[in-house]
Amino acid sequence: MPAYATLRASISPLFMWRTIMVQRGRPAKILTPSDLDALLDSLQKIPFLKKNQQHALQLLQQQDRNFDEKQLAVLKIADRQNTQYQQRKLLIEQIKLKEKNQQTLLENEIEILGLLRLELDQDVFFRLDRALESYQKLEKAALDNRIRLENEHRREVLRKTGKTLSEAQRKRNIENQRKYELGGAVLAAFKQLDIDISQTTPDQIKNMIVNYKKFVDKVKNTKIFNEVKQYQNNYFKREKLFVDVIQGLATWSKAEKSLHTIEIEKHKDKYS
User: Fold this and answer.
1) How far apart are CA 10 and CA 86, in angstroms?
2) Which DSSP helix (H) or strand (E) runs through 253?
3) Is the pTM of this model over 0.70?
4) CB atoms within 10 A of CB 216
5) Is the pLDDT of residue 43 over 90?
């Protein structure tokens, strides 16, 4: 059976390979149960597996999925390898389309097409994988170089024409710089509070800040807090005194029931 026919059977050409390349600097992926099931399904469909993929397949076929750190590392590598495999299958579709449209083929594209026409065995499979990996790297390098040249050309045009930024553009630049600085301040604040927000969305962070401010305002409008202010002017000491007063009130009781419990029972139905 030709190598192309086997590989093509499981191709889902939803996106071009450039749109699904893994970007550097992303947080480490957390494999969910559905991710592990999808990985198992994909590994079972690959004709020939690398050693790490074989190990991952054995782990995924176990009933017990309480993996330790070493086993999780194997699975994460296998997940990345699977992503690369899917990307390279999409590359095959691109190259086949170029051939069909009678576009000029590069030397490495001709090599890949030649391997696809061979009978698929382990040697051909991994030769094809290496050829696709090399082609993928060259394509990315060419894309990066094209972007660099376009940016250089744009800067050169601006330099020669003496084009200056408009007032609106300058204002946008200032606003963007301000947003960048505020974002850094928010990140620093959460880090100082030892709160992990790596998986938190911007909207969730915004809501955390807004809700906290609303709660603090309600506390500061209480009779107890306003009376505390009369005894302590220092901001930080006033907060500590307020907490001490609240904790102290919790030690008082009436008819063998603490005062704070009485108050909770009095008001709790309003928020049921």
Assistant:
1) 9
2) strand 253-254
3) no
4) 11
5) yes
Secondary structure element (H or E) that encloses residue 187, with its range: helix 167-192
pLDDT tens column, 220-264: 899 999 998 899 888 788 889 999 999 988 888 888 888 888 888
What does DSSP assign to residue 80? H
Confidence of residue 272 (pLDDT cuts 50, 70, 90): confident
Exposure on the CB side of residue 160, measured as CA atoms within 13 A: 6
Q: Is 106 helix (H, G, I), strand (E, B) or coil?
A: coil
Q: How far apart, in whole angstroms, are the C-alpha atoms of residue 48 and residue 125?
A: 7
DSSP code at position 63: S
Q: Are 22 and 84 in contact (CB under 8 A)?
A: no
Mean of pLDDT over the chain: 82
Which stretches within 32-121 are classed as H helix?
Answer: 33-45, 51-60, 69-100, 107-116
Structure tokens at 227: 């009376």
> Cα(181)–Cα(210) distance, rounded to whole angstroms?
19
- If phi > 0 it is left, if psi is from -120 to 50 it is alpha, else beta; for residue 172 that is alpha
In a 3-state reduction of DSSP, which class is residue 21? coil
Using an 8 Å Cβ cutoff, are 212 and 220 in contact? no
Facing residues of 171 across strands? none
Rounded to 5 degrees, what are φ and ψ at 119?
-65, 130
Q: Give residue 11's pLDDT.
A: 36
Question: Per-residue DSSP letters for 198-237?
Answer: TT--HHHHHHHHHHHHHHHHHHHTSHHHHHHHHH--SHHH
Over residues 191-202, the pLDDT tens digits come to 888 888 888 888
Residue 79: its pLDDT value, please?
93
Q: Say if residues 46 and 75 touch (Cβ distance below 8 Å).
A: no
